[in-house]
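Appendix B. One record, verbatim.
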Amino acid sequence: MRMHLCPFPRLSLGICSVLLLAVLAAPSQGQDAPAKVIRKGPAKKEPEEKLPPALTHYKGREIAQTMHYTGAPWLVRESREREEECTQLLKCLNVKKDQVLCDLGCGNGFYTLELAEKVGPKGKIYAVDIQPEMLQLLRARLKDTGRENVTPVLGSLIDPKLPEGELDMVLLVDVYHEFSHPEHMLAAIRKSLKPTGRLVLVEFREEDPKVPIKPLHKMSKLQVQKELVPNGFKLVEQYDELPWQHVLFFQRDEEFDKQDKPRGEDKK
């Protein structure tokens, strides 16, 4: 019996070979041709944020060093409620459901979790800190409580990385006096606020020698105004019933944008 190597017996063996190779080389129906492999080089690193020199003094005040994350247990100490009346502070903030707030200098989230409860599931809290270790401690507490309306944010010394024009309130509890670049931070906070948004400063009272806090970590009302008013804020309310701290409420001063302002931070 004669066997034909070519499936088309009337064609020559050479032609059959060419046709067979063509069929084998073509992609089968329903399949894509092999993707072209593109070799990528190493991923480009994002440029590091350029920081201007840190200030040691601002408008006559010595700037305190940032509290290290190893001191975080002090923030959740058992005696804090008795010493500072934290519940009363939260009450005077008058937080509303569905608001968008920022706990700036949140640490391990002592106030963050309370604020998250007050704004409810439809509200949002931006918890900002410049130390990744603090945010790790915060995330652990969020996991334990199941809170899902908190966004941890790693800020920088000059930028809290907040969305522009969305914040109802930015709360700074015993934090502002540690800012090494106060004008940069105040400008960024100002941009983040809604037209009716508030910046709330809580600082230990310098005027009261009985407050058992180092002088470097205290601020007077006069000094706070000396620093915030030239940066586009106006005092709209204050609360004086806490045992150790001032609570000062500021809003954006719209007249500030109409003024000619010198560039650079005042180190005096």
